[in-house]
Amino acid sequence: MKSITVQQLHEQSDVPLVDVREVDEFTAGHVPGAVNIPLSTLGDNLDALPDGAFNVICQLGGRSARAVQALEARGYDATNVEGGTGEWVSAGFAVEQ
């Protein structure tokens, strides 16, 4: 499974980001530009995933890692963001609400 750090994510601007947290978590604060597709609904929303490579984030990295493993098994080019949104916030990066 491919992974990147929040610092590497911060340096990227051209790779789509899918946030697999639940809607209430996402609306409380998320990485700017992220699209919310909760892990609990991911299987029903595969058509909403970006074409090509994309990153996947959650709060700490566990849910996104599970999502990436499942998506890779289906042929998607997904990369896990280690540390998740919690690490993003701890690094002092901006969030959207």
UniProtKB/TrEMBL annotation:
PROSITE patterns: RHODANESE_1, RHODANESE_3. It comes from the Bacteria. The keyword Transferase applies. Keywords: Nucleotidyltransferase, Transferase. GO terms for molecular function: nucleotidyltransferase activity; thiosulfate-cyanide sulfurtransferase activity. The keyword Nucleotidyltransferase applies. InterPro entries: GlpE_sulfurtransferase (IPR050229), Rhodanese-like_dom (IPR001763), Rhodanese-like_dom_sf (IPR036873), Thiosulphate_STrfase_CS (IPR001307). Coiled coil: none annotated. Residues 11-97 form the Rhodanese domain. SMART domains: RHOD. Gene3D superfamilies: Rhodanese-like domain. This is Putative adenylyltransferase/sulfurtransferase MoeZ.
